[in-house]
């Protein structure tokens, strides 16, 4: 339980279905936000309030060390390399459905004839059929979170339930109000890095952990048009905040060996679009599909490179080095190395990988982009 409406309603639904519900709160971060408020303590008080109202036990587990070592430090390492990681995907694999799931399974006592299950407030569904445990999209496509769950393998999902997967967000809020949880419903939705929260000035937050190295901001031909504050502070596709001429400049690439930030004029510049990525560290939730058994094999699927993006048709190809290439049928704006590309067969989430490189719409004259 996080102290938010989704996990609170999940507990309510499970209790209504006759389960012996126990609440667990996970503390992963121990510093205050920009207001000087420790949001972790605020959230835990909300969890305790909900558990008291439902008359269920509640305990708190501290994973700040594990989160730092397994998620946050790796996130910082990636930013220092000039790539843009997705710590939420990593957190689900390493912490929520890793360390926390293992802890709950090992330390939860079940009554005679009872089994221990692990439930969260994610908008996704689990399908169990023919010996397989499949991750499916949530029914509410505007809230579907299967993208963030794409790197958790089938073994972890074998004892997992998602009580909200079949509900729209509006119904979840309605249930919360019916049970007197007005204050929980009014809370803003969690945003930003998993457990770190939303930071008003994210680059400033990262600069506390990264040694910023300013460098040249250049156009696609290598002409210096300004200075950047450090490659970690910029994401592909976003505004570069470079003042040069009358154009508005956007980030199209990063060159770590020269510490250069590649910028292009205009939000729809061709270099901001790409249709093919290569991904490493690929995880197939239910094992590698039979259609991709050898290098050169291809499979037609739906793919996304970010949360809430509309799924796009794509072709996945197995490469000789064990990575997978994803060719989208439609170019996508602002693909950033380090992000996750995830694929589905209909509603069935098959898995995904970390984007290693991107094929931009560039010609041979644009040597600076390499």
From TrEMBL:
Q: Which organism is it from?
A: Mortierella isabellina
For the keyword Nuclease, the answer is: no
Pfam families for the chain: tRNA_Me_trans, tRNA_Me_trans_C, tRNA_Me_trans_M
| Molecular function terms, GO-annotated | ATP binding; sulfurtransferase activity; tRNA binding
Q: What class of enzyme is it?
A: transferase
Function comment: Catalyzes the 2-thiolation of uridine at the wobble position (U34) of mitochondrial tRNA(Lys), tRNA(Glu) and tRNA(Gln). Required for the formation of 5-taurinomethyl-2-thiouridine (tm5s2U) of mitochondrial tRNA(Lys), tRNA(Glu), and tRNA(Gln) at the wobble position. ATP is required to activate the C2 atom of the wobble base.
As its record notes, the protein acts as a catalyst of: 5-taurinomethyluridine(34) in tRNA + S-sulfanyl-L-cysteinyl-[protein] + AH2 + ATP = 5-taurinomethyl-2-thiouridine(34) in tRNA + L-cysteinyl-[protein] + A + AMP + diphosphate + H(+)
Please state what the protein is called: tRNA-5-taurinomethyluridine 2-sulfurtransferase
Which keywords appear in this protein's UniProt record, sorted alphabetically?
ATP-binding, Disulfide bond, Nucleotide-binding, RNA-binding, Transferase, tRNA processing, tRNA-binding
User: tRNA processing: is it a keyword of this entry?
Assistant: yes
**Entry EC no(s):** 2.8.1.14
Q: Which residues form a coiled coil?
A: none
Which InterPro entries did the record assign? Answer: MnmA-like (IPR004506), MnmA-like_C (IPR046885), MnmA-like_central (IPR046884), MnmA-like_central_sf (IPR023382), Rossmann-like_a/b/a_fold (IPR014729)
Gene Ontology BP, a term: tRNA wobble position uridine thiolation
What domain of life is recorded for the organism?
Eukaryota
Family designation: Belongs to the MnmA/TRMU family.
| GO-annotated cellular components | mitochondrion
Question: What are the tRNA-specific 2-thiouridylase MnmA-like central domain coordinates in residue numbering?
Answer: 204-263
Please give the PANTHER family that the UniProt record associates with this protein: MITOCHONDRIAL TRNA-SPECIFIC 2-THIOURIDYLASE 1, TRNA 5-METHYLAMINOMETHYL-2-THIOURIDYLATE -METHYLTRANSFERASE
In this protein, which residues make up the domain named tRNA-specific 2-thiouridylase MnmA-like C-terminal? Answer: 278-355
